[in-house]
Each structure stands twice: as C-alpha cells, then as structure tokens.
Amino acid sequence: MQLHGAVHPPLAPAGEHVGDRDRPRLRGQRLRHGGRLRARLQGPRAPAHEHGQGRREHAHPHQRDRARRARHLHDERGHRLDHGRAPAHHEGASRAGGLPRAARPRRRRRPGVRPHRARRGRGAAARLLPQGLRARAVVRTVHAVSAAGVLASLRAARALATDRAATATAADAARAAAAVTPAAASARLAVGPLGRFWRSLSPAGLAVGAAAYAAGTRPTLAPRGAVAQGVAAGLSLAVGYALGARGERLVHWARRGAHRADDAAGHPWSDAQPVARAVAGASLAATAVVTLWTGAQGQRRLQRLWGLPATAQPDPRTLAVAAGAIVLPVIAQRRIRRRVHALRSLLGRWLPEPVAGVAGDALYTVGSILLLRAGFAEILGRYVTGRFAIRSGTISHEYERPTASTRSGSPASFEPWSGLGAEGRRFVGSGPSVEEIAELTGRPAVEPIRVYVGVTTHGKLVDPPDLDAMAARLVAELDRTRAWERDVLVLVTPTGSGWVDGPAVAAVEYLHGGRTAVAALQYSVNPSWVQLALELDLPARAGRALFEAVHARWRQLPPDSRPLLVPFGLSLGAYGSQAAFGSLEDVLSRAGGAVWAGSPRFTPLVTELTARRDAGSTQIHPVLDGGRHVRFATRNGGPQHLDALGSAGSPRVVYVQHPSDGVARWWWPELWRPDDWLREPVGQDVLPRLQWWPVITGVQLFLDMMVSDSDGIPAGYGHHYCGAYVDAWRWVTQPDGWDESRLAALRARLADVPR
C-alpha cells in the first residue's frame, strides 16, 4: 500500500442520514498542498470527534510518533499516519490553514524492489477491523502493513530464497556425485521412462494378451511368413490387452461404486498389483518364446497339406514385428488418453461412470476410425492412385502391339494402344494363338476376339471415369470386330487394377476353338485392396454399365443368331459383375450363364444364395435346389465333378471358390461372430480344429485375404484359380467333343499360361 500521503474521508453534509444498507468501502480524497491519494475504509454513520481527541489518540505509545495536525473532524476509526511527515509537535510542519505540507521526496529504492501499492479488494479490506473498535487497535492493524513492515518482509523473503537456493545447489551436487556409481545408475534407470511404462501396464491386460498372442500364432487358411505371423500375433496381443485392461477398469469402477465410503478402495487387488503384473509379464514372455516353435510347427503342417515344402522355422523376426505391432498402438493410446478422459467427463454428467467410460471409448474409437479413414482415403486418392496411374500409362515392351483386327489397340481398332493401360495391353497382347488352339484340340481354330477399353487417354488417367461412355465405346469395338457372330461372348469385369486373369480367358477360348469374344471394361488403376478402401461402389457401377450396354445391343440381334452371353469376374471383378443382377432369377432371365471366381464375402448375390442352400449342405460347398441351375466348384485342381448332382437346366451358373480363399471368407462380421463354416467340418485344404476367437480370428482372416494371391500360393489353393476354370466353362457353355482326357490336357496347358 502507498504510505506517502494522508486520507481524509469525505463527510456527509449536516443533517444527512446515511442508510444502514451502506457497506464499508474504500474511499479516497486527494489533499491539497501536495498530499497524495490514500485509500481508506469509510463506514456508515461514523460519529465525528474533535481534533484534540484524535491528537491524544495519536500520541498513544502504540501509535507512531509522527502524527500530523489537522483541523478537520475525523471518524471513530482514526486515520493512518504518514511516516514521511514531520511530527505533530513541530508547529512548522503545518502551513496556514492547518493543512499538511507537501510530502518530502522519497528515498531512492534499491533496484528490483517495487513499492507496495494499495489495491481495492478483499486483501485490503480484510486487514482492517470491523466498525466499533477503538482507533488505537485500528492503527495497530494498519501499522502491521506499513512500508517498514513490507520492506522487512521483502528482505526476509529474499534471504530465505537465497538460503533455499544454496541448499538446493548443495543437494544437487550431492545427488550428482552419488549418481556416478553403477548402483545409483541402475536404480535411476529402474524408475526412468521404462520403469514408469512398466508400472502403467495392466496386469489383467497382460494376462489376456498372453492368451490372445498364443491364439494369434495358430494357422488358419493360408501359410504365413515370419512378418505376417508377427503382425497377426502382435495385433492379437493388442486386442487381448485392450480387452483385459478394459475389464480391469470395469471391475475397478464397480468396486469403487460399492465401497465409495472406503478410501482404500482405489484399485482392485492394489496390494498385489506389482506381483500380478510381474507374473503376467513373465507368462507373456514365456508364451512369446514357446509360440515361436509351436507357430512354426503349425505352418509346416499347413504347407504339407498344400503340397509345399515344409520350410517354416522359428524366426526371431516374428517377435520383433509383434513387439512393433503392440508398442505402436499402446503409444498411440497413451497420447489420446487425455482426449478420451475429457469425453468421459463430459458424458459423466448424464451417464453413470462405467457407462460413460465405455460410451466415451466407443465414441472416440468410431470418431478416430472415421477420421483415419478419411485421411487414409485422401492419401490413397492423391498419392497412391497417381503412382499407379503413372505405371499404367507407361508402355512396356513386354507385349507388342497386336496387328490382328480382332484385338483392341491394333491399327484397325478404335481404341489407341496407349489408351489401354498396362493391364489392357497385357490382355490384348497375350492369349493362345490359332496354332496353339488347333494343336491342343486337334480341330481347326479361329483367332479369338479380345476387346478392352481403358480409363487412360493419351497416357493420362480419366478420374472419375465416364462408365456409360466407355461402355458405348466397347460396344463399338464389338461391332467392329463382328463379335456378335461368335459362339460365346464373355463380359469381364476386371479387378481393381484392370487385370484380367489369363487362364480364365484362355480356358474358354480353348474349349470353343477360338470362336469366342471376350470384352473387358476397366474402371480403375488401383489394386483391389486400394479400391476397396476408396470406393466400393465403383466396380459395381462398372459391372452394371458393361452388362446393360452390351445386353441392349445383344437384344437387337435375331434370337437364333445371338451369341451365348456370359458375365465373368474374379475377386473384386466378381463383385462388380454380380452387381448387374438383383437376384438369381434376374441372372437366368437375362444372361446365358455366368462364371464367378473368388467372390468376396460381401457380395450380396452369393451371400443370398449361400443362405438359401439346401439342408445338410455346408457353407463352403453349398447345394442350391439340388444343383438345378447353380453349382459350386470347390476342389483344389483336378476334376470338379460338377455333374455329380445329376442333370441341370439352362442357363447355368458356377461359383469357383476354394475353402482356403481368404477373399471368399473374410468380412467385418467375422470380428464379433463366427460364420457357419467355422462351426462346420473344414474344407480339404484347411487344417482341422480351426477355432474362432473374438476379433482375433477376424484379424487372422484379414491377413489370409491379403496373402491369398501372393507369389508363394500354388495354383488351386487360396485365391489362385487355374484348373477349375476348365470344368466351370465346360459346364456353363457346354462345348462339344471334350472328354476327360482332353480336359486333363487343357488343365495342364493352363498351368503354363501367365496370369
């Protein structure tokens, strides 16, 4: 508070009554002759007293000896004294009129010390006593916050800070000297970041994670290498740890709610938690080491079942990949914990704590997935698609430009060679020749027709593609090549990158001696997994545009001269091709048959037909209406025995799918509920005793889908279809002159056809 100057409270006019509702408040008045503004508490109805009374009180030993004279009336509280004024008994200290003279110049203060200033507020009012006390007590209270007291307090605080700094410096030096010993360094490391991370782990999460880790190393559909095995084990461990930690938190909430009055109820098994964490961590470490051998043994058994060399061995890379797969999610979870807690607190205003916790986690998880998916789609759409577009536009010398007019991209074609893309150039630049077909069949053959329309124009990607315009261009190519005069017209919906499976097309060309026309419409340059993440509706729209345009032109032909119209698709192409039909009856009424291989689990038509299967048939090999129109080829190479169910009607539809094909088995519902095939007897290419675990099995099937068409997968297993195409096309198109010996020779020939 400023202590240079005097305060005189303004007096109420004579006869004016001050109301009782007025509260004490700080008032101030600047005095003449140099007096400074002083803060003062002015109370209501303060009775006046003569100046002599005030001077007698000022002379009290408890008051300061330097009082000033004034002729004004004062209230009963008295006024604060100024240590910078002359004593009251010096008559020369006052000027005429009894007013105080100007304050003396203040002494120069030391640098760094701010003068104490009075402020209006609770602190200043709290240091003054209530109304009714004697002035000497008031003055004694004010004296406690005088300038001398403030300066003394500042000096004491500075001395105390200096002593503490010296003490802290000495303590730091002692700790630094002690830290150089190996024992001290080990103890410091034990309580460092790794120690804090270890103490933050959930014992229940580690225990459940160990069981999940063991389950994640078991074989499922396809053999996995060390990296894929480590990813499966690490993700399974992350899922198990999350479930165990969440269960522990729920128990903690329930126990705290039941014993809210008990302060000790802070955590379940709080006393035994360090021991439980150590035991759970040891069990996890032992499980990781043991499963190196048990997991490799399971992979060797699956390799022998597929006819592959049993080469799987314990690989330490599995542990490294699994550690990365668990550590990265845990670190990410720690970073977003604050946001989750904030969301829980917000929901806790209206929901019970356990419900708010679960709801907060669910909302944050869903929101994170949506944001990550949007960011992932942006990255894929902007960068990945651009790279694949460049590769698609690059003209390779592996396939030469065809010269036959029956091929797109030829000099006679409406479609330029550069506009077909990499997969289109591969499709029209390959295939069996007339001589190869005649050699195998022993009969005269003709040049097969292959038509392809790509999504690139002059080497540049057209995004989004105009599918209707592209389908019209494809019909124009069919008109140019006189494809309507052939026996069979196959409409191919390619995979995401525009790839057409070579053995599938070559099989139907061999069976009909080249009297076929195959038309393919590209819709993307991305691999199927990228297109699945970006836009799943695009292949469906391409399949509809392709079939609708060709079917409209096909209906204009005389009924007795129409070719057999057969849609075909593999993988994501099978999904897009089936999207042109709303039901099986729609297929039978508008198409002459269909061959679909490796249909994804999320394909609506095949899912509906599988659900309608006859009683007693399994999901991996369903039988629909006794095989009247639809049959499933599920064997691994060799004869498919499609005629085993007896005679069939026409048109005919064949689904080619292996029991070990992860594409035909995985979809999101596998994470939380088992499909029928997991409870039924397994297929001939899957190991017995396949068990379903929540979330874990879904993760394993997802990895099986990713590796089901890799280079190490043999023909006739997984997503690699080859010889089964021969039986499928023969049963659907019904060519003449093919016995079992010729069919076996064709299967052997297709094994050498590049995909």
Structural notes for this entry:
This protein has helices at 51-58, 122-126, 135-143, 147-178, 182-190, 193-199, 203-216, 226-258, 273-305, 317-335, 337-347, 353-393, 421-428, 434-441, 467-480, 502-511, 528-534, 537-554, 572-578, 584-590, 604-611, 676-679, 696-707, 724-733, 740-750, and strands at 25-27, 40-42, 449-453, 456-457, 460-461, 488-493, 516-521, 564-570, 593-597, 630-633, 652-656. The protein has 755 residues and is of the alpha/beta class. Among the domains are: 1-93 and 115-145, no CATH class; 394-663 and 708-750, no CATH class. The strands form three sheets. A seven-stranded parallel beta sheet has the order 3-7-6-8-9-11-10, with helices on both faces. The radius of gyration is 45 Å and the shape is elongated. The relative contact order is 0.06.
Task: Give the arrangement of secondary structure elements.
Elements: E1 25-27, E2 40-42, H1 51-58, H2 122-126, H3 135-143, H4 147-178, H5 182-190, H6 193-199, H7 203-216, H8 226-258, H9 273-305, H10 317-335, H11 337-347, H12 353-393, H13 421-428, H14 434-441, E3 449-453, E4 456-457, E5 460-461, H15 467-480, E6 488-493, H16 502-511, E7 516-521, H17 528-534, H18 537-554, E8 564-570, H19 572-578, H20 584-590, E9 593-597, H21 604-611, E10 630-633, E11 652-656, H22 676-679, H23 696-707, H24 724-733, H25 740-750
Parallel strand pairs: 3-7, 6-7, 6-8, 8-9, 9-11, 10-11
Antiparallel strand pairs: 1-2, 4-5
